[in-house]
Amino acid sequence: MSLDLSRQRVTVDRGGHQVRSIPVAVRSSSPAERLTVVSKSAERSVPAPAVGPGEQYDYRAQWVVELTSDDGAPVLLLAWPFKSPRDGQIEVPLSEYAQWLYQQLEIGDTITVHHG
Questions:
Q1: Rounded Cα distance, 64 and 106, in Å
Q2: In three state form, how does the secondary structure of the chain look?
Q3: Closest to 12 measured CA to CA, from 116, 92, 85, 68
Q4: CB count in 10 Å sphere of residue 87
Q5: Higher local confidence (pLDDT), 56 or 103
Q6: Which of 115, 105, 116 lies closest to 20, judged by CA?
Q7: Stretch 9-29: mean pLDDT, rounded?
Q8: For residue 50, what are the contacts with CB-CB under 8 A and spacing of at least 6?
Q9: Sheet holding 34-47, edge to edge
Q10: The pTM is what?
Q11: Region 9-26: what's the mean pLDDT?
């Protein structure tokens, strides 16, 4: 599996053939070249974008895959319906795409990051 930051896509390959390419939203300045799956949650509470000054609330995200970059920084891959990419997240706009990626990944799997 690979993440292309310039194209904003996650691509899944099997046996040297592309199985699926999924659009994502990523805002990252990290030099990481590899992300490793450390945990998975079908549902998890994460901070949501503020709706007004000083307001904060949690969002029950689905299909959350917690990753760690080669420099130890945490990254979440998750279904995210908001149009505001956040640092440390790989946001999948459609829940069915996020679910499919969730089902493909196992703890210990790696995602290769291409910086474009």
A1: 12
A2: CEEECCCCEEEEEECCEEEEEEECEECCCCCCCEEEEEEEEEEEEEECCCCCCCCCCEEEEEEEEEEEECCCCEEEEEECCCCCCCCCEEEECCHHHHHHHHHHCCCCCEEEEECC
A3: 92
A4: 11
A5: 103
A6: 105
A7: 91
A8: 56
A9: 17-23, 9-14, 2-4, 110-114, 34-47, 58-69, 74-79, 89-92, 25-26
A10: 0.88
A11: 93
Encoded tokens for 47: 């901070």
The first and second tokens of residue 63, run together, are 């299909």
Residues 26-44: pLDDT tens digits? 987 677 799 999 999 999 9
pLDDT tens digits, residue range 41-92? Answer: 999 998 887 767 777 788 899 999 999 999 899 999 999 888 777 788 899 9
Rounded distance between C-alpha atoms, residue 51 and residue 63, angstroms: 23
Residues 6+ apart with CB under 8 A from 80: 25, 61, 89, 91, 92, 93, 98
Of residues 103, 106, 99, 91, the one with CA closest to residue 3: 91
